[in-house]
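Note to self: keep these together.
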Amino acid sequence: MKTFLLWFSLAAAVVAEPPITLGDTWKAGLANLAGATGMTTSLCVVDDQAQTVLEWDSQRLLVPASTLKLATATGILQQSGQNQQLVTRLQMVGQRVRLVGDYDPELTSGDIENLALELIPKIKGPIQLEVTPPDPEPYPPGWSWDDLSSSFAPPLSALVFDHGLVPLKLTAGRQLQVKGPAWAPSSALNFLPRFGEFEMLVIPGWDNWVMAGQLTPGTEEAVTVPMLRPELAAARLLSEVFKRNGVAVEVIPPGPAQGGTAIEASHRSRSVQQMLLQGLAESDNLVLECLYRRFRRPVPRAWAGQTLRVVDGCGLSRYNLVSARQLVQLFQSEPTLVDYLPRAGQDGTMKRRPVEGQLRAKTGTMSGVSGLVGEFTGVSGRRYRFALLLNGFVGAAAPFKKAEDELIAQLVKNL
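Structure:
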């Protein structure tokens, strides 16, 4: 009886203003956190019959951060895309060779080298290596420019490889020495003189990486920087492999397709299903953004005709706007999505989250943004799907993540 009364009070919160509800108590505590002034929160919880049991501001459009990755996964699952593999091809027609990418986020420089080695025995004489055109949108709208120097926001390309990153070693002496892979650009650095901590930057409008700050003479720094032009890096890599194996190669700009029979070497990825599982667990922007483009920017069926804004597939854009209710609708429209959710205490970004209620959820985090979307089991044994979004706080996300965990724990105990 007690459990029923608690459930009834939660359900009543949807249609009435009870004196004290679990949600009101939680929001009051949240307001006392440093940096919470002016923050907006939104919650939607539904039961296993898709009936709403608790909500507030559930239709307000907010920035979802990485919880948007669930929409990308839903769109792919609704195309049965999880069973596919991505195929990267090295094709030769006559003496012209071109590399055709398939947005494989797990492609490596070793895979590309192996394609060249497979094709070399079939090459007779010199070749022309065609550079693949650049992606027309290497960075989606709304990606913050100061994120572009980080490992979690490399530029997008159908030919991205090595996770879009380049390892470099910098040695400070009379002259700065820069060592990297053979396919890295030979003049890769610009300099931004300033005092303070050394860092490597990607700055819009600058063609190369920008070294800012100072290195002490005699010291070495190992850094990893985003790959600025993946298609050029791939061309340099192939050219180096061909020349090393005695093939004369001329690098040329892209041109019209040639007629004739293509000789081909190909590399197949592991399944998209495996990529989705790992990409959601680790909240990997590159994986979800590549798959979003590979599957032609899929829109979940449940969102057709709704008011919202989605401009990327990974949630890094601050232009994205969706509601908590729309995020919960993803589970109703694609039941198998639950199987792709990271498990609390076990997987990726959920590894350190409390395990009450067999919680499975996708996290979302940006400066001033946090979210949690998933499923838990209440004390009654019933399953509940939920979406919780927080926008507009100031400071570290950790206290707000803890508050999310406390709310879920209370829901588990009272439902």
